[in-house]
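Re: the multi-chain job from yesterday

Posting the exact lines I submitted so nobody has to dig through the queue logs.
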Amino acid sequence: MSGPLNFTAEALAQEATTLVQKLSAGLHTLPEVDDVHYGATRKQEVWRDGKVVLYRFIGEKAPTAKVPLLIVYALVNRPYMVDLQHDRSLVKGLLAQGEDVYVIDWGYPDRSDRFLELDDYINRFLDGAVDHLRDCSGREAVNVLGICQGGAFSLCYAALHPAKVKNLITMVTPVDFHTPDNMLSLWTRELDVDLFVDALGNVPADMMNACYLMLKPFRLNLQKYVGLVDILDDKRAIEDFLRMEKWIFDSPDLAGEAFRQFIKQFYQRNGFIKGGIEIGGEPVDLGFVDMPVLNIYAEQDHLVPPDASRALKDVVGTADYTELSFKGGHIGIYVSSRAQREVPSAIHHWLGQRAR
Amino acid sequence: MATNVPPWPGDFESVAQQYWSLWGDALRQVGAAPAMPMPGAAPGWQQTVDWWAKLVPGGQAQVDEAVGRFQRQASQWFGQMQQVAAQFTGRDHDATDIGRAWRSALGMAEATPAHNPFADIFRSMQGGAHGLDGWIQQLRPWLENLQRDGDRWLHVPTFGLTREHQERWQHLAQAFQDYQQRVAEYDQLMLQVAQDAFVRFERKLEAHAEPGRQLQNARALFDLWIDAAEEAYAQVALSEDFRHAFGGLANAQARLRLGVQREVEQVCTLFGMPTRTEVDSAHRKIVELERALRRATRAQVAPVRRAPVQRAAAAPAEAPVPAEAPPPPAPRPAEPKVVKKAAKKRPPSRKPASAAKAAPKQRAAAKKKTAKKPARRAVAAAAPLATRQERAPAAAPAVARKPARAPAQAVPKARVAKAPKKTAAPASKPAAVVSMKDWVARNAARAATAQAPKAAGKTKRGKGK
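And the result, structure tokens for all chains:
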């Protein structure tokens, strides 16, 4: 038999039978799946400003690091991705290395938060959290780990308040928003963001999620769910799948004004590269980021292409700049087994070399 | 459930009957069959999945959503691919045959098909996402009534008592017309994606025609199709045409939404109900009042702000904090943060407020000390300390944080120092890509090397003496 397909009818029947078996197994396993929980590590609230909360993670042993490490996540998803489950937790890895880890949780903005601006997020919430950590630790400056959009916020913060950031780590952080492979950026270029925000107020999370799914529509809407059938007989794999689904779709709405400013200044004007970013009336110039910087990007990142992250080295002011590539994607950098092996160690070693 | 596969009956319908039979056995085992009667005729894959989805116990949100997503789209596409695959078992074929069968299965055999499942994927995502499509469908009769007289009506001058209303309706009808046009443009691009995906699919199939590279099951065929579709989509989605179409569609949606919102507000106003504009206005006032209050509070307490902590003096406070032992500080609401700071006692490790005057010298000394470190060397060399402090008020000693933010005026642009250029420094910047894996391994090796002599020494001493 010639042609691209080399299977017999019997093999096709076997394949169909296997699928039916999996579906059948799903009737046993799915009812056993409890509400999926996330967060492997105990944490305590240590500071709050409105809906924004600063948590401290509590490890099994006391931290040996002297400088707090503040994780700053994006607004578009929930920060528990960094502590998703027992065996997929960046936080757990960092605690095991002796870091003293905190995370800022931006909460779920509602309509009353529509007029929050980037100034509020960076100079009020983030600065408030950093000041709290400086107060508690007695340190002049803390370590900041910014992830994705949180990395962009951290860069702005470090440029505006360099004395308060001892070491800056950026992970999968966009810096050059106009690289030719940046689909999201291209799509925003002709968006009338004023009209958009005026019409919507806050930007609905579902709309943002639809945008992310549109980056790889066939893989993320079709192939992934056909793949779900393969694991229907494995309760643990289903729970992992559902936990990830929850994280993907458990997204806060975005405060309208902050969204408007972010799209205009970062996506449309490419302000980190071309200049022109202003937060609360103050210009942001990455040349003032003079503390040590570790920039980690993912080689197969479809949301933040590697070139978008790597651009940091040409615009940042520090002479102590380290760039590491991670073999994986935008999500894999937190949850893959490779990430558990490599990312916390890399961060800890790098910080350790700059502990004094 | 039986796991033996019965002999191949010769066609896909019979396969469906076979697995339906297996399916019935499975359901009887889980006790589901009596509660949910099976359809009379043997169904295909999609009916099986639909029936299965009904049997999955509901109530667990994540399970319901995942099953729903599988059932709504993924299983349909895969089921169709299974049927296509079944047509080519046991006979010679080529890539074109499969491509043609797949086009036909998707209803896209014609050059300009009446139906484009590609566009449906995106429409269902967007409709499900923020309900615009469903919402427009509900409004469609009304909007079409507005358009009944076509373009002529849209451009008739408005006058009289209802002038403003007529004009608003004209704008709304124009927005609807524009939206329809943008949807058509977008769909046209999706059709282009579909056509290109078929071409790529056939090309990929050709690459699998050689013995040893042939596809071994329907799932592999499906995955190959996904690869082709993604490639075709990516090419279009990164194009200027798509950028234009996407932006145009999003803007048209927003204009239409705003137009309808205006009508809703008219009705709300008529019946004395609060409108969104009013609520937004109230929220804006609250936010502005809050900001003004914060500025005023900061301005009041600024003189007694904390001086920066000296690194050496802070050493005792650096002892690792046990995770369990000391009770955590109660969560501190931050709203009146500066007021609290002004009132509270300072911890012993920090300087009293009276030391604030001395702070500048210490700060300068600390800065000099810091500047010796390689991390800050270049910047310190390139930018005089005074300049940097002027640029970054947070670093200023007596007023440790930013002064009251009377935004744009606080730091006049003319006074803002330019960031140091990095012509002098970047010797330590890596020239090549450093893999995290290698970096971690190298550091681990260094750590091990550093540890080894110590360990060896200890052993020697322990054993020898």
